[in-house]
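thought: fold this chain, then report.
action: predict
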Amino acid sequence: MIARFWGVRGSVATPLGVPQVKEKILWALKGAQNGDIVDERATEHYVERLPRHIKGTYGGNTPCVELHSDDTTIILDAGTGIRVLGLHLMDGRFGQGNGTAHLFLSHTHWDHIQGFPFFLPAYVPGNRIVVYSPHPNVEERFSMQQGPSYFPVPLKTMNAEIEFVRLSPGQSVTIGNVDVANIKLNHPGESFGYRVKEEDVSFVYATDTAFANISGSDMEKYMAFFSKAKILVFDSQYTLKDAAEKEDWGHSSSLIGVDIARDAGVETLVLFHHEPTHDDDTLWDILQRTRAYAELQGVDRACKIIMAYEGLELVV
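observation:
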């Protein structure tokens, strides 16, 4: 499987503003040496060597992750990132009305569904969009989001075949060569994580969840769900201090993610659902602190820690 990240922010879309772009340009120019920008080739080489938070951005779109295996397209959440994914898919069979997408929702808070009305493949006749969720009345929730008070185009006028499948908590479904299991997480209004397995390799998506005590007996089911995942996408919206102060808000921290990844034998931990008030500099700093914490905790060097960014592509 190939995993692609199209939206990584939490709570609300957070586009870069002019001051942030200007700050990046100034930082890059001040750091340039005499030979770094003498010609186009040297300039391109210099820019490529810059850290990610300077040469680009972690991104401002809300959650959307694509998993692609052979002819199977699985989408995790429909935040604003699904709009960009839709544009990408339109270049292939979805643009011809021959595509099927399997969309799994963690929950229906707006930052996880607000991109669906802008998902172009859903407007193309012949395409099939299957929406899975353990939550009740998901079709009604989508319809409400596209009601006339909030959006000009009703759900029922989208031309693709849109099907809603109600999952049972803990249920596993098979799509092509892929098995998708779910688990209930700790979040107001209920959120669900997904473990996507192909052969013996697993990708786990666990956003919008809080873990107050990872040593408690209640954690056993989660550790089993995360166990030996090749990739764990983990809610790290809060700092550890924020997580303690907002324990009922349903989010976790990167340091808790490290502890879980260590104990569950995870190969790659992807920090996800970034706090909207955290700019790129802050996210870069959190990543460095998290990696330092992992080293202090004796986390196996084979366990990679990545700050999710739009455009990130991983082989599962």
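thought: worth noting. The mean pLDDT is 96.
final: tokens above.
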